[in-house]
């Protein structure tokens, strides 16, 4: 069995440097740095120059750069590669080059090799992906966000609200069912299951909240499923809160209009104009509501569908901490009294306590800042969180200014529009028969992210809008 290496790579590098600079002989360098004389001699004499020595030499510099560019390209478009997929692409690159390698061609490079690759590119990191539905991914794109901020800037400037945060509001609702899971870790014995008792009863209660850019919070509106609690439920709760019920416990048009009349108009202040921004759910819009808003000099902007996780202050920084605090309080009550239960009648008091402990003036202001709503700031939403414009539709190739090969669509073929559905984010396609030239080149090649030799290995994600669906 060969003897295990007993020296550090750093020691070997120093020994080789000392010999190459004629500061030490090979023998003296071996003695001073604790590296075998034959090892230093082999490296100095170039024995390993043409040998596949270690993970970093398996790909050429061009191949590694292309692979990293591909990883970034796919991540930005919502198709991040797993470690397993990365290894598969490495094998495909080597097979394409047709050269020998120390890699196992069935399993791919080792995890050690991948770790070294990531260490050489610290801009990359491995993390658990957050789930995002297709509609949210489609609508959370650069074009949609740019259009929204243009509308917001124009509206704020026109209304003269640039320096009037107390006249800019955001409202939305969030539900509580008693099934929310705690994000707080607990101490328990190894190898055992850990259970935690909460005292919230199952059901559905919706809280509708409204906040202003200057940090103040309007009275809350609670919506119960079925009916209002039979017992007293207003104890320990601000007198100006509003209550309602629906069969499901969710907001509907009538309830929203009731909130608009009894909470927003009386509590949004006397200064006008006022700007109210909320999502475009059907329950929030009605002819009567629009007429009342006009009569009270209240202007309304609807957030783009499926973008509230980025653009709505309440979703960005308020509802998350509030739900966690409600959960913490319910757990604490469960630990203090195993017989305690918090039903419909007691939930308002619990929620009120959570709001007092969570929602501060500073937190509300920060929620508006983080969403770019006030001060209005498009740059606060990084493009890395958005889907870029589709290459095939946003960067049309001109035949006279590029040498990219094109394929002609005949007049018997169809072209789709790029209109997005305002509700689901799917592409609404009307089709027409035209003759047009479209690029068939891999966009990563035309963007100089990869060489043409890897164009059939490192492929961009498929464009879902070009995959026509048939209904039978």
UniProtKB/TrEMBL annotation:
One of its GO terms (cellular component) is nucleus. Gene3D superfamilies: Homeodomain-like (1.10.10.60), Ribonuclease H-like superfamily/Ribonuclease H (3.30.420.10). Keywords: DNA-binding, Nucleus. Residues 1-50 form the HTH psq-type domain. It is found in: Nucleus. The keyword Amino-acid biosynthesis does not apply. Residues 26-46 bind DNA. Its main location: nucleus. Residues 51-127 form the HTH CENPB-type domain. GO terms for molecular function: DNA binding. Pfam families: DDE_1, HTH_psq, HTH_Tnp_Tc5. It comes from the Eukaryota. This is HTH CENPB-type domain-containing protein. The lineage of its organism: Eukaryota, Metazoa, Spiralia, Lophotrochozoa, Mollusca.
């Amino acid at each position: 069995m060969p003897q295990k290496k007993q020296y550090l790579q750093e020691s070997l590098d120093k020994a080789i440097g000392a010999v190459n600079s004629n500061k030490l002989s090979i023998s003296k360098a071996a003695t001073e740095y604790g590296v075998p004389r034959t090892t230093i001699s082999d490296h100095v004499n170039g024995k390993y120059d043409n040998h596949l020595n270690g993970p970093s030499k398996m790909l050429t510099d061009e191949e590694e750069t292309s692979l990293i560019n591909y990883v970034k390209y796919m991540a930005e478009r919502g198709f991040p590669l797993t470690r397993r997929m990365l290894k598969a692409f490495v094998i495909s690159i080597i097979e394409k080059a047709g050269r020998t390698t120390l890699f196992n061609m069935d399993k791919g490079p080792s995890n050690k090799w991948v770790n070294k690759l990531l260490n050489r590119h610290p801009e990359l990191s491995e993390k658990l992906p957050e789930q995002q539905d297709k509609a949210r991914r489609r609508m959370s794109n650069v074009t949609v966000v740019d259009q929204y901020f243009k509308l917001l800037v124009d509206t704020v400037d026109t209304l003269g609200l640039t320096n009037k945060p107390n006249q800019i509001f955001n409202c939305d609702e969030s539900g509580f069912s008693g099934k929310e899971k705690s994000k707080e870790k607990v101490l328990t014995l190894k190898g055992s299951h850990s259970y935690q008792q909460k005292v919230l009863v199952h059901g559905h209660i919706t809280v509708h909240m409204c906040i202003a850019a200057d940090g103040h919070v309007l009275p809350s509106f609670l919506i119960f499923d079925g009916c209002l609690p039979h017992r007293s439920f207003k104890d320990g709760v601000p007198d100006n809160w509003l209550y309602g019920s629906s069969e499901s416990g969710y907001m509907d048009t009538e309830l929203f209009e009731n909130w608009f009349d009894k909470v927003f108009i009386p509590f949004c202040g006397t200064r006008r104009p006022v700007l109210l921004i909320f999502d475009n759910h059907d329950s929030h819009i009605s002819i009567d509501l629009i007429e009342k808003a006009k009569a009270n000099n209240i202007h309304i902007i609807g957030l783009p569908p499926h973008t509230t996780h980025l653009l709505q202050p309440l979703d960005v920084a308020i509802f998350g901490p509030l739900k966690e605090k409600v959960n913490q309080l319910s757990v604490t009550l469960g630990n203090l009294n195993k017989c305690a239960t918090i039903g419909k009648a007691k939930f308002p008091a619990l929620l009120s306590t959570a709001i007092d402990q969570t929602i501060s003036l500073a937190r509300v202001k920060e929620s508006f800042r983080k969403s770019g709503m006030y001060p209005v700031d498009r740059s606060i939403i990084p493009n890395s969180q958005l889907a870029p414009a589709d290459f095939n539709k946003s960067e049309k190739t001109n035949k006279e200014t590029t040498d990219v090969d094109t394929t002609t669509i005949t007049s018997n073929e169809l072209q789709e529009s790029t209109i997005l559905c305002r509700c689901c984010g799917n592409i609404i396609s009307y089709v027409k028969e035209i003759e047009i030239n479209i690029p068939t080149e891999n966009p990563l090649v035309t963007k100089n992210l990869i060489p043409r030799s890897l164009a059939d290995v490192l492929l961009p994600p498929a464009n879902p809008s070009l995959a026509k669906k048939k209904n039978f």
